[in-house]
């Protein structure tokens, strides 16, 4: 008897291969992708790289979580479609004498067969392409390291655990679904949605309101920190708004068009509006899913490709000189000692120090309240109000900039990095009020570490040490420090004539400088780790985008098949009422085109509106060239649009083939 059910289940899979195979292929791809990312993030291959690429593994781990969540949602959504498409088949089984228990048993066996097939082939392809993806990742950040074939046991275990759990939940879903259906419902469920949909004005207004709110946030938020905190709120608002646009707004608009008798009672408009009303009711959720997936692809690929394209500029911003020395909580006199040690270290290495920049500074991280910035202990409140202030003397600024600026006591030159703006004409730092004489457009000695900060950096140039001491004294009082303790920061940055001797210069300097509060870092020694971080974002972006695209193609394929079977009978009815085949095809083609490309149009609009939002977030990753992001986004939209058109042409052929059967 068990053999009978097994054969019956296998025959069902073969008989329904038009529906089952896309599901199996997409599940295999998803499982393989999850294994590969898990293997890279938890395996030991990347640990063998110079400096470990720890940031890369953190980004990969984030990708694993995203794929795990999306896989569960996608597999459940497509599986529910498969069950819905077969309810008539289950109804016939009931008429032929099968009980619900027997039908559920067959479906459970089908699900088990699908689970085994997809897990075996998914893991097989994951193991096969794991090495290839590792080499691609290494190529992205120019790390010429090669490893042998390695299986990551923890990745295999987590893959089986996750997808085994998903398929187990699908088994439970199947049993519950069958147990709740009645025989009459089984035979009629496919046609339950044939009543004309009603206009839902409240939901339509809510959908437009949510989408508008998300758009408003994208256009009005100026601070990158606040952009991150509000990003998920805006995303959720637009996602829910998108669902309501397809479910309520579209139907409400079509109903208003129908109520316009002059417009509606024209043959072309009558057929199109009526057809679109029913299509939107049947496909609203699917179209919203396609729209959201399209938006995810456009944003993910546009953002990560822009990050990678701008990684060289970001690298040079973070490391403006070949070698950088920082003295923390030091003294003013220490700067001269550091400069002497730099000269000795370079001479001993046989190289020359060039383009040397050096100055003392006072570094304050505080909260901006109006025009006042002050250090605060404990809760600093909203993160978007935090600022980094670098206070330097005018003589040091003139030395670095090779200019001859002048200041009076109580005046300042102010430079703010590209993350933010400051409109006031005065600024108060730790209780010391300064009038802004000039707002600078450039600061040649800008700190690479400050550029990498999440907060805006204010470079405050004061006349002399008097103003510096006032701010330092107030800061020490706030920190309960004695006057003898140092709060000055030293900065020395320089290039060397022979880049290959960077490590030797750093080694020589460390031999000369024994104090623990002096840090030296080289540009070349950080290149692999820094660029690898950006490369990992591109890698994850491509990986996740591919999963989104595969999922989208499967949903579009199922939608076209569903449309084909729904329209097959209506095709004959329209012929009987006197419409020619040409009129019918034109009507259906216009409806299908509108339905099919509406998600792409709205997704493109979502992406374009989100540009200011994303542009501010990218600044936190030192991606300050907006042109790079614009080009990346434009290319992504164009390429995806062509791909979308190709998918339409392929799936529409399947649609018309079903209609003609």
UniProtKB/TrEMBL annotation:
Its main location: membrane. It holds the Pfam family FtsX. Residues 64-182, 543-652 form the ABC3 transporter permease C-terminal domain. Keywords: Cell membrane, Membrane, Transmembrane, Transmembrane helix, Transport. It is a multi-pass membrane protein. The chain crosses the membrane at residues 20-40, 60-82, 103-129, 149-176, 197-216, 228-254, 287-309, 533-558, 592-614, 629-650. It is found in: Cell membrane. GO terms for biological process: transmembrane transport. InterPro entries: ABC-4_Integral_Memb_Prot, ABC3_permease_C, ABC_permease_BceB-typ. GO terms for cellular component: plasma membrane. Belongs to the ABC-4 integral membrane protein family. This is FtsX-like permease family protein. The lineage of its organism: Bacteria, Bacillati, Bacillota, Bacilli, Bacillales.
